[in-house]
Write a structure and sequence with these properties.
Beta Polymerase, domain 2, single chain, Beta Polymerase, domain 3, 7-stranded parallel β-sheet, alpha/beta, DNA polymerase, domain 1, 17 strands
Length: 589
């Protein structure tokens, strides 16, 4: 039972609606329907709402553009009773594990329901057994080839029946929501998530959260009563474990303010990083654990309250969590060779932004430009999809219309430099949308792979290099095409592509969306030594709320060790435009 002073946050309400979308897809047997589109609109509306939705009446909810009567009533129900009866009903029919199956390429809602109806398969273990027994090919609409593709997807994604890993996109949503919701409890002093999530790992086992308080009982009671809690695994005097949204285990540990830094360092990890720190401490006559850095001989505490104080006492600069993987970061830090951590305020522009001119954009041009302006950026590239993306792309006539709309918008945003751009599709042979003459309409382009993900590595490498060398292409977007937990990266020679990009004056994108984080940190570290190679940290925002993705793109740059000097959209506008002009000069030369 929720404490009376803890109404569900907007984030908790959005999470409930997302569950409703997922279960409705199973009920409807299709990925999109009138009902799911209505819920999606409501989610966007609530994400943009400036006030607490839980405090609104039914009429006030219905007055929000995008929230209909049916959805408003479900929100009221969730606020009043902590759950939505439709979700409760659908859970009886569709176990939560079926939602995970829908994330596997080739398994849409209709197929997942067919697995349940015809084979009794409702989870990954059952799916793997059915594949091993060649049962999928017996389902309506499937065959041997479909069965093999699904099996291949499972292996490429690294999914195993004996382990449960949650993609970072889903885990971060839950972690930030729990942290924000628990922060509303007056008894909470400090709070942070830790573990592999804080290190920006691509998949997460469970979520670790630390908090300090003078009233552990109230904090733990509030934690186990949060909106969305589906199971309480256990609760004691200083820690508790829950399952939230039927999705992931969240562990809370309560420590004192004096111990917070040591606990945060310990529970962030990695194991390898912590071992190296402990060895370093021992060499200085100290011992390091989750409580403090202390003298071995007399137990006197040297540092504990902050991570920074512990690193300083060990003769090291503070090492950002993303780098703590035990792969030599302590040696680099001791030598003073760590790059200055990239943070969002260092960026002056965003080079990959969509509007509702694209079929998948959800904010208007003016909404997006205003949001970019509010964030203090100097420049932005509007990059709606090219014509070869049939469902979402812009025809040549629409491109011309958008060009006129952007020209008019520039007058309304005189302090913002707006580039009329496009996100071009890289075809299997490396060609992009539109002919060379028409491409001159655009002031900037990002080119990305949206299809033919299963080409062999040589073909993918040649394809990307052809796009890199195209004189109209400024940036290669999400180069591997991956979606973490849903679609594996294409196989290609990242060093060959990066060398070609450096030679051509084309930047490689660090896509900030948590489903992508592309290039990966491993790939970033692989190509950092290539002289002249530049990167663009872009949000790939399709809605104004997604401009916040930049938090994760800069974190990915930190994890990959990218220095700010290698990021093109950190340049002042004049220097950035000079960088863009260099490519045209090279191609003309």
């Amino acid at each position: 039972m929720k404490p009376s002073n803890m109404k569900p946050s907007n984030e908790a309400i959005v999470a409930a609606l997302r569950q409703l979308v997922a279960y409705t897809k199973l009920e409807d047997g299709q990925s999109q329907s009138f009902r799911t589109r209505a819920y999606d609109k409501a989610i966007d509306a609530i994400n943009a709402a400036p006030n607490d939705v839980a405090d609104m009446s039914l009429s006030e909810l219905k007055a929000i553009e995008g929230v209909g009567d049916s959805t408003a009533r479900k929100i009221i129900e969730f606020v009043e009773r902590g759950s939505i009866s439709k979700i409760d009903r659908l859970k009886q029919r569709f176990p939560p594990t079926m939602l995970e199956l829908m994330k596997i390429p080739g398994l849409g809602p209709k197929t997942v329901v067919a697995l349940q109806d015809h084979l009794g398969v409702v989870d990954l273990a059952g799916l793997r057994r059915a594949i091993a027994n060649e049962q999928l090919r017996t389902l309506p609409g499937l065959g041997k080839k479909s069965e093999e593709k699904i099996a291949h997807s499972i292996e490429l994604l690294g999914i195993h029946s004996d382990e449960t890993r949650t993609p970072i996109f889903d885990a971060m949503r839950i972690a930030t929501r729990v942290v924000n919701d628990l922060s509303r409890c007056d008894a909470v002093s400090q709070i942070a998530y830790a573990g592999s999530l804080r290190r920006l790992s691509e998949t997460i086992g469970d979520i670790d959260i630390l908090t300090t308080t003078d009233d552990p009982e109230t904090v733990l009671e509030t934690f186990t009563s949060l909106a969305g809690v589906t199971t309480i695994m256990g609760s004691g005097d200083t820690k508790a474990s829950i399952v939230i949204d039927d999705a992931i285990q969240v562990d809370l540990r309560v420590v004192s303010d004096a111990e917070f830094g040591a606990a945060l360092l310990y529970f962030t990890g990695s194991k390898g990083h912590n071992i190296e720190l402990r060895q370093r401490a021992l060499g200085r006559g100290l011992t390091l654990n989750e409580y403090s850095l202390s003298q071995i001989d007399d137990g006197a505490v040297v540092a504990a309250a902050t991570e920074e104080s512990i690193y300083e006492a060990l003769g090291l600069p503070w090492i950002t969590p993303e780098l703590r993987e035990g792969i030599g970061e302590l040696t680099i830090a001791e030598a003073g060779l760590l790059p200055k951590p990239v943070v969002p305020k260092m960026l002056r522009g965003d080079l990959h932004v969509h509007t509702d001119w694209s079929g998948d954009g959800r904010s208007t041009l003016d909404e997006m430009l205003q949001a970019v302006t509010d964030r203090g950026l100097e420049y932005v590239a509007i990059t709606d999809h090219g014509e070869d993306l049939a469902m979402n792309g812009l025809s040549r006539e629409r491109v011309r219309e958008q060009q006129a709309a952007i020209d008019a918008a520039r007058k309304r945003y005189p302090l913002l430099t707006v580039f009329h751009g496009a996100e071009l599709n890289i075809g299997p042979d490396g060609t992009v949308d539109y002919d060379p003459e028409f491409l001159e309409v655009f002031e900037f382009t990002v080119a990305s792979i949206h299809s033919h993900f299963d080409l062999d590595p040589d073909a993918q490498t040649a394809r990307l290099i052809a796009a890199v060398e195209n004189p109209a292409v400024n940036v290669i977007g999400h180069p591997s095409g991956r979606k973490i937990g849903a679609r594996p990266a294409i196989r290609f020679d990242v060093e060959a592509v990066a060398e070609a990009a450096a030679d051509a004056g084309t930047a490689l994108e660090i896509n900030s969306h948590l489903q992508r984080l592309d290039l990966s940190a491993t790939n970033l570290r692989t190509v950092l030594g290539i002289e002249g190679l530049m990167f663009a940290i872009s949000t790939d925002a399709h809605h104004t709320s997604e401009l916040d993705n930049i938090t994760w793109g800069t974190a990915q740059a930190r994890k990959g060790g990218v220095p700010i000097e290698r990021v093109v959209n950190s340049l002042p506008i004049r220097e950035y435009m000079a960088w863009m002009a260099q490519k045209r000069g090279r191609s003309e030369g």
